[in-house]
Write a structure and sequence with these properties.
The chain has about 270 residues and is of the alpha/beta class. The chain has helices at about 1-10, 25-35, 100-110, 130-145, 160, 170-185, 200; strands at about 15-20, 60-65, 75-85, 120-125, 155, 185, 205, 210-215, 220-225, 230-240, 260, 265. The strands form 4 sheets. A 6-stranded mixed sheet has the order 3-10-9-4-5-7, with helices on both faces. Strands 1-2 form a two-stranded antiparallel sheet. Helix 3 runs parallel beside helix 4. The longest helix has 15 residues, at about 170-185. The two termini are about 40 Å apart. Residues about 255-265 have low confidence and may be disordered.
């Protein structure tokens, strides 16, 4: 997605297809992740909850189309900015999240693309449901938005709903955000009952557990982290689609002819 965004910005392309796939075909990978104590024995992602005990692996395939404003007259949302960094060596090991690197990439994107932080109305967190991951991410989100004087910042993670699609999880989060813009709603987290995280108890951040309205001009952010130290951060804004109007069918009452093995059929 970042590469597509850069190519669109410099005019190399006008349209890109960005896809992500996660298929859990090899049981050896499950065994490896179990040895790292990364997976939940309950088969759920208890994101930001006190019951957090690892994540649930899930499968998913997603594709989005990213287009330049020069050729796109209507879109679900706009990609306002995106960045990726890598935090390298961590003494705790490759599965341990780096709070400082997470803060660094978020601050970089918000600054480089001149994002109005006051317009950010929702944060789609990486939120895996691991104790170390949730703790560090909540601290990094609170740090990035420490200058907010408004009400608690709503946050959530699609992993609570569909599990962790690993290499495709960032794209799944973006698909969720596109659906939120379509419905003008913030979708709720599930599996959240109680928490001991200071950032939530103090009210700086608030996990969304009921459907809420998404203000029309709101920006939303999405974070995605790899356990080898890669950190991605993006900001989305509202598109220009009128979802109350459905397009007319381009082909009505039309018979199409197809050819298969040299024989025509309708």
């Amino acid at each position: 997605l970042e590469n597509a965004f850069k190519d669109l910005q410099n005019g190399t392309i006008t349209r890109a297809v960005v896809g992500g796939i996660s298929l859990t075909l090899d049981p050896a990978v499950n065994n490896l992740f179990n040895k790292f104590n990364m997976l939940s024995p309950d088969g759920k992602c208890f994101v930001f909850d006190d019951r957090a005990n690892g994540y649930c692996r899930s499968e998913g395939i997603g594709v989005i189309i990213l287009e330049s404003s020069a050729v796109c007259s209507h879109g679900y949302a706009t990609l306002e900015g995106i960045g990726v960094n890598s935090d390298g060596y961590i003494k705790e090991g490759i599965t341990y999240p780096n709070k400082l690197a997470q803060i660094e990439i978020a601050q970089d994107v918000l600054s480089r693309f001149d994002i109005d932080r006051a317009r950010i109305g929702y944060v789609e967190a990486h939120g895996t449901g691991t104790k170390a991951g949730d703790k560090n991410e909540l601290a990094s989100i609170a740090s990035v938005h420490s200058d907010r004087n408004e009400q608690s910042l709503p946050i959530g993670s699609v992993k609570s709903n569909i599990g962790h699609c690993e290499g495709a999880s960032g794209l799944m989060a973006i698909v969720k955000l596109l659906m939120m813009y379509e419905k003008q709603q913030i979708f709720p987290n599930i599996n959240f009952e109680s928490t001991s995280h200071a950032e939530l108890l103090e009210g700086k951040l608030r996990v969304v557990t009921q459907i809420e309205s998404l203000p029309e001009d709101s920006l939303v952010t999405v974070s995605n982290y790899g356990f080898t130290g890669t950190n991605a951060f993006a900001v989305l804004g509202p598109g220009n689609v009128n979802f109350n109007e459905r397009p007319e069918l381009a082909l009505k009452d039309t018979q199409l002819a197809f050819v298969y093995n040299g024989q025509g059929s309708q």
